[in-house]
């Protein structure tokens, strides 16, 4: 199965120290890639890089909203490895509120803070644009590469707010407008870039994952799982095969596509 072999390829993962980012790094390393563990938190990035199997890996402190940070990372990567072959645009902000007691009120569309909306778009959309521009340009210049933009099922369908109601029927939280808006933009940015760089040998695809079980309230896990044909939320490892597929020659005739891995959530 040499189609999936990433030996001697340089693969960058942004937001690499998150729950899913670490699993992306692991999968790419197992496939043979030299992985750039790019994250805001350098100490955690070093820890993740040190734990990866296989070849030499490079931890870097990277802010995807900063062109200067990205350019410095690009220069260090090319100096270190000589080329860039894969970019996994994984860095993102999801809905979080510091005070759980205020979450239901602040997450309502009518009350959602403008500053939070702008911050999410800055990371989830502008960050992907900048990382693709900075890391993708060397790929276009060398005539090959794969960019994987991580979106979400909520970039395809609207959130079902009912699954955030507890057993007493109380709305504990609303999925905010910023996350679906940003992820929908990612899906179409992928199409734009695939069309733009297709003649340069750079493939650009979206990976749209479903929800990952990660210590959520039991009522939420039950209600999410009930809406999913496979009957469960995703495990952190459920996207590893998809990432390697999109990064490798196994998907060599695939660009501008949205690979949905959601247990069937968007099928019904």
From TrEMBL:
Coiled coil: none annotated. Keywords: Oxidoreductase. GO terms for molecular function: oxidoreductase activity, acting on the CH-OH group of donors, NAD or NADP as acceptor. The keyword Metal-binding does not apply. It holds the Pfam family adh_short_C2. InterPro entries: NAD(P)-bd_dom_sf, SDR_fam. Belongs to the short-chain dehydrogenases/reductases (SDR) family. It comes from the Bacteria. This is SDR family oxidoreductase. Transmembrane segments: none annotated. The keyword Oxidoreductase applies. It comes from Hymenobacter setariae.
